[in-house]
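In the previous chapter we treated chains in isolation. Here, by contrast, the input contains two separate entities that must be folded as one system, with a combined length of 956 residues.
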Amino acid sequence: MPSSQVLSAQDLGRVKQAMLLGLARQPLVIPDPLQPLATAAAERDPALTVLALAGQQHRFQRPPQPAGVEQVPEAARRLHQDPRPILPEAARRALLRLANGVEKVWADAILSVAARRVAARGFRLHPFDLPRLIADIKADARCLGLAERAYLALTASAEAAGTVLDNEITRENWTGFQKIHRIAFLRSERRKHPASTRALLEDVFKSEPANVRGDLLGALDVGLGVDDLPFLESLANDRADSVRTVAARLVAAVPGTPAFAARLSEAARCFARSNLSVGGILNRIGLADAAAVTFKPPASASGGERHTSLARLFEGFSAAEIGAAAGLTASEVIAAIPCDDDAIHAAFSQRAARDDDTATLMQLAEAKLTAAGTNSRTAAPVLAWLADALSEPASLGFGHCLLGSAAFQAALQRLQEAETPAAMKDDGTLIWTAAVLPTPLLPSFLAKIEPLLPATSRAARAFVDLALALEAPTQRR
Amino acid sequence: MTAPLTKDKIEQLAPDQASLGAALKLMKPTSWPTLARNDDGALLWGECQGSGAAPYRVIVSPDDVGYKCTCPSRKFPCKHVLAVMWMHCEKPDRFEQGPSPDWVQDWLSRRRPKAGTKPPVETADPQNKPVTSIRAALAEAEEEEKPADPKAIARAEAQRVRLREEREASVRAGLDDLDRWILDQLNLGLAGFAQRSAQSTKTLSTRLVDAKAQGLAGRLEALAADIYRVPEQMRADLAFERLAALSLITSAYRQQTRLPAPVQADVRRVTSWTLRREELLADTQAPRLAGDWIVAATRSEVQPDKLRRLETWLLHAAPPKDAPAVALLIDFVPVSGGAASSPFFAGETLSAEVVFYPSATPLRALIATRTPLSAETIKWPEFSAGLPAALADYENTLARQPWIDYWPLRAGALTIERLSAQQLALADADGHSVRIERSQTDALTPLLGLGPISALFMWDGTSATLLAADTSIGRWHET
């Protein structure tokens, strides 16, 4: 450690000033302590020697103590007060391998599913991994527990993060949470207490900004009933166009209203047991259960507008509602959906997701997979929305159906026979299969993808490793 | 059943005869501290001490002749891969049987298909591929082992001396250029240096490279990049200090014979002279340190000269008193060679003997030998509490090697504190604190409110960059 400074602060300051201004403008005055050294090397310009020594002394100046150290932010404390244990190390490594290996196009969707799986097992993400993962999961409220919300509060805008860092959202604190949480909360509460949940929203509705009002209002699409009509109709003159639009949509979807009944009736008429076939004969002799159910779209849903018309017609309906109106079971209705249709399938799926009706979700997925036949590209998108909608892995029954489906087998074969790097890439079939399969079927899945190149199945394997590590008995809570 | 690799197959794969010759030279057991295969021999892997700081890791899949090596060679397959194949063909017993380590699984999962059939970089047309012969390589090796002609040896030595003298003269001419340039900057004034730095440094750095003073050229290029990484009010000071260091280097180089040997080694290395791996390993005076090491951090940066600099920071688990506690392995790979990373993972532990490049303040090192770990888990070493002692360590180092840009420091009982939403600080229990690089704000936010940590961080005189920390919820590593 240098025991003394060669140059006084004043001398150092003068030397530095001259060099900053420019020696052509302010000639250098060599400080006395440096005179012997600066002039000793005759062949060297003294300014270089002075620069070397003064600059070096300058480096020993410690920077000033930073001012204004804040108190530890409340959010930082809350981040580490999350009562959930951190996920086991093996699961953590698998999750990071998944994050580093998954295709960018699916990263946010897959990592959201993975984060929800971690949460469902009672764990939380390792805090040190939040910077890596938060960008991909922050849009999904289901992934965001206390620690994640606290991290967002520290690094994102207050609006994005919400202001309340309670462990759970409740009727007392719900207005302080991020919008995505509030929407999810309203939907969840509507399933149990539709009227009081509407009242909860009514109490704060006018004080919310327009962009938030419209989205919160949309959450009333769960458990709609005639009791909601007065509130919804009162919004016909709301100052925000978005609110008026959502309100009108919800009014048209309220069961029991003439508009709803008319639309339901029209939609139900699309499904019927055939009278002009063997099925029809069976129907006439009382063997209705064995008669085929067919689908015929209304005349208005034709040509290029077919998808839009059907989407509008079936919006908000469940397969069970349509079936009841048509004298059919939900299963019959689902089985009769045309294999090339997406509109009706999407409408039923959205309703099932809103109702948290996992059985119907899996039934719809199974129907789509079956209808796909050997079209190996169909499985991925179907499984993607299923994984997003489910809060737990699929049932064993669905899992067996999936692994045995022609679409899945065709996808495996296509990947095995691929000869170009592009063709060898997982189109999503593998990773989404891993994401929906129940744990007991994961070893079987691994065996099926064993012949594939490691690069093809890397992300899927990482997801399997994560799922299995979360289930390891020594690491359960 | 795994198809055996034959010599014919190896000859077909070799991109040229030189590769076979080079592979033959690598077949000594001492070159391969690790050589193994899995149960059915479908995977072979090894670690080879190459010219880089860290060993090259090689994987071969004999069945489909797939392979991977971490060396920067642009020949496919490289000499390391050929050596593994050849050794497996001739001496399969040298391969220990066992489960494949994580790095094999990880790299295997990224293996591109048909890697074994990728044509060598230097031979586009298979019909024009040079004739490759194992027999010829063996004959050439025998020829090299014969005692050389004394006259030829003398001629070669004379040429080496002449080339060295020419290079010295060239470097000194480069130093003269640098001194003139620095004077120009002083005359113009350092307050405006930032605005003119890009063009001004580029021209001179090109001349320094021509003068064989690549190290100084690199420093100039780094200055031009770093000047805009600091707040505007600090740029003139940065220029003042960095140009001072350059002036100190030019002066020290010219008077190097008057310097202690380690300082002389430092000034020669920072100017242009590199020590080859073989020379360092053969240097009995070079400091060595064996033991368990924690891979504290891995960093990758593309330099202005289009080389990717790969850093692996090793922290000794129990350094003896006065021995270096931190070792830095540095490898350079061309950016055009594709993505590359340190062969080690942050958080990994290894047992090795590390040899340091001669220096007044040893830091840069190579791995000389690997040994089995002494325990399954390696405890984080104890650090002295508080910042003042760590900052004093920096100042002591600066006094011994005046041109360091940064230095790794260790301190315990620290906390991460917040100065603002974008600025964090490292603080100790007595209220001392230092700023942390802004680029680390998001990554280090989870350490807020965590309680005391034990940290390894780089200090450049004004701000800290955390490399690793031991905390109550596990270790944090910069990657």
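Chain B touches chain A through 60 residues (CB under 8 Å). Residues 102 and 195 of chain B are 48 Å apart (CA to CA). Compare these points with the single-chain example from earlier in the chapter.
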